[in-house]
Design a protein that fits this description.
By secondary structure, the chain is mostly beta strands. It has helices at about 205-210, 340-345; strands at about 35-40, 50-55, 60-70, 75-85, 90-95, 95-100, 105-110, 120-125, 130-135, 135-140, 145-165, 170-175, 180-190, 215-225, 230-240, 245-255, 260-270, 280-285, 290-300, 305, 325-335, 350-360, 360-370. The strands form two sheets. Strands 1, 2, 3, 4, 5, 6, 7, 8, 9, 10, 11, 12, 13 and 21 form a 14-stranded antiparallel beta sheet that branches. A hairpin with a 2-residue loop joins strand 11 and strand 12. The protein starts with about 30 loop residues before the first strand and ends in a 15-residue tail after the last strand.
Length: about 375
């Protein structure tokens, strides 16, 4: 091993290099550098959802991940973390495994039987459409210097087959009854690891300050199909502070891989004021080409995987990318994800399954949302807010 280069990985065998370095090195030394995999796989009736995620933190020498099942109001989560350098080419952590069968077309994910929680699954994802990129998410700290977010992401809709089990009872996953969404992102990411104690925070607001402001985050991929078999998708990502947008990416994605930009959106949605869970409504898309389009949204069931249990926004002081030892596996069962006291611990961010309609086209999607503060247009009052 050459000391100033490191050890070649299997990826170095391929003709994919774009920098004068090995794949064991990334382009910068920022500790927020992350490469992340995410899957949300809901049953179309909204009764069950399976989630999976994997994160590689090259500059932290950590790989972590999560897998779990949401069934109605119940949720089981298994989390894993390991030292990356022990097996740098392994795409997995403990009972969590990820496999690329055919790039951009077929993948496998698995949560093996484990001693942490009585849930397991093995699923094969097959693409329904090509993957689509979002706009690059570049965001600087509020003092204008460091890039606190510089992320490239693509997402993809697919169908799945396989099985899952809860308490030893195995259930088949048939493609006709389920839908799947996955994304793959890489770059410098916000909220990785503990905040340094000798630096001014990149934002002038932390969790306590955020709880006092009006903040909105919506991220949603939506897969549609017409009676003639034509497939298309919508995707948008919107962040607002004090009712003013500061990041937006939105596209109508066609089956042939082309994308049409959404200029802006108007959301005619309602949320539950107690849980901040989406109830349904309409979204109006104003396309850059001048066309106006409207989709109707219904929330079909109570399932919806809460991502706080996967360390999004943190959980009990733990964050993504933290070193937990050579191998660490934990998790828990949440009996009622709509219980307010529980929600204040696991946060409101969830993969909420939705059913959608536009004219004669119907489909399904995942709606992620965080709405903090006062949003009366959505039925949310500031005095009942939480993160």
């Amino acid at each position: 091993m050459t000391p100033n280069l490191g050890r070649p990985l299997p990826a170095d065998e391929q003709l994919n290099h774009q920098t004068a370095n090995l794949f064991s090195r990334v382009g910068e030394s920022d500790l927020g550098w992350t490469e992340k995999i995410w899957f949300a796989i809901p049953k179309k009736d909204g009764s069950v959802e399976i989630d999976f995620g994997l994160g590689k933190y090259q500059n932290r020498n950590v790989m972590d991940g999560f897998g779990g099942i949401s069934r109605g109001r119940q949720q089981w989560t298994v989390r894993g973390s390991r030292l990356l350098s022990t097996e740098p080419a392994l795409l997995g952590v403990g009972p969590l495994q990820y496999e690329v069968v055919e790039p951009l077309k077929k993948l496998r994910i698995a949560l093996a039987e484990n001693s942490t929680q009585p849930v397991a699954y093995e699923l094969e994802f097959t693409a329904l459409n090509p993957p689509f990129c979002e706009d690059r998410h570049l965001q600087y700290d509020e003092h204008g210097y460091r890039a606190v977010s510089d992320i490239v992401r693509y997402h993809q809709a697919g169908q799945v087959r396989g099985w899952y089990s809860v308490d030893g009872k195995k259930e088949d996953v048939a493609a006709k009854d389920w839908i799947a969404f996955r994304d793959h992102s890489w770059g410098v990411r916000l909220d990785v690891g503990a905040s340094p104690i000798d630096l001014k925070p990149a934002r002038d607001w932390g969790e306590k300050e955020m709880a006092k402001m009006d903040f909105l985050l919506n991220w949603s991929p939506m897969f549609m199909e017409k009676p003639n078999g034509e497939r298309y998708e919508y995707h948008f990502y919107l962040q607002m502070r004090d009712h003013k947008p500061f990041y937006f990416s939105g596209y109508l994605n066609r089956q042939d891989g082309t994308q049409e930009r959404i200029a802006r959106i108007r959301q005619d949605l309602k949320y539950d004021n107690h849980t901040r869970r989406l109830k349904g409504g309409k979204i109006h898309f104003e396309m850059l080409n001048g066309e106006n389009r409207t989709i109707e949204i219904e929330v079909p069931g109570e399932a919806g995987f809460h991502l706080g249990c996967a360390l999004y926004l943190g959980l009990d002081g733990k964050k993504h990318g933290m070193y937990r030892g050579d191998l660490f596996v934990d998790g828990e069962k949440i009996e009622d994800t709509l219980d307010r006291k529980t929600l204040e611990r696991i946060h409101q961010l969830r993969d909420c399954p939705i059913r959608i309609r536009e004219g004669d086209a119907t489909g399904f999607g995942i709606f992620e949302s965080v709405l903090v503060g006062n949003w009366p247009e959505f039925g949310l009052s500031g005095e009942n807010s939480f993160i």
